[in-house]
Amino acid sequence: MYRTMTRARACEMRLRKGFASGEFAGVIWPSRGQEAIAGGLSTALRRDDRLVTTYRGIHDLIAKGVPPAEILGEVLGRSAGASRGKGGTMHITCPEVGVMLSTGIVGAGPPVAAGLALAAKRSGGDRVVAVTFGDGATNTGSFHEAVNLAAVWALPLVLICQNNQYAEMTPVADTMRVERVADRAAGYDIPGLRVDGNDPVSVHNGLLEAVDRARSGGGPTLVECLTFRFSGHYFGDPQPYIPEDEMARAMELDPFPRFERFLTEHGVSEQEPARVDAAAVAEIDAAMTEVLAGPLPPAGELDTDVYADMAGIPR
């Protein structure tokens, strides 16, 4: 879990460095502060389980096993990207490890995930589908429709709300009357759990409970991971809408120092977290070097993967 967290942080920080210095151009929607959710997610799902995530999902992609070069390449529009540079930050997919969709539309992930979960159920296996989204997505009609159908059909779906307390630039208190997103599960008669989104162990335990329930045929669960976003909505956002004292309090709960203390208290040497962190930085630096040394997509790439190849398909 800690290795996943450090790789996610290193990936974002390397992109930030490049944007800020002018080394390359691009945009990301930061997830710094939310890495513990990725840590717990990485150990709760199997490789063949499916994941649908959002434009603020680099840490989720790392958690599910997308190679860093494919993430960096996609953000920078390079041929090394998971979609050969055509998807960009918002639309990274990697079916080989179960990442079926990253969406740039708030609330668009749950309906697609419900469809994937229906397919999984009809196939007769025990595959689980997880979908991550922010607090703002739970105010959309698409969220309601997807959760309602998942509950009615008892689909193997785990709904993961990464409640970073701001829907883009609007605080949660201004968008909903309920204090706990998890309480919304009662409207669909499914379990709703709230876990500490800054503690990967808490996230892992909550997600594992939901995954086990889905895998055994018990239907969907809504898991709310309460966390905080340490950066603006997008890279470069000055975030004047977040009070300084609120940000200061949130950063005191940074998941890294806390989990490092947990590890050392449970027998991990004090030097090991630093070693793992350094290894993550080196891995991401090497991946970035590979991406930047590679080619840009050729013009002919525009015409590929646009329409299905109908050759050999019965009509």
Automatic annotation (TrEMBL):
Q: Which UniProt keywords apply?
A: Oxidoreductase, Thiamine pyrophosphate
Start and end of every Dehydrogenase E1 component domain?
4-295
Does the UniProt entry include the keyword Ribonucleoprotein?
no
- What superkingdom heads the lineage? Bacteria
Q: Carries keyword Oxidoreductase?
A: yes
| Name of this protein | Thiamine pyrophosphate-dependent dehydrogenase E1 component subunit alpha
Which Pfam families does the record match to this protein?
Answer: E1_dh
Report the cofactors: thiamine diphosphate
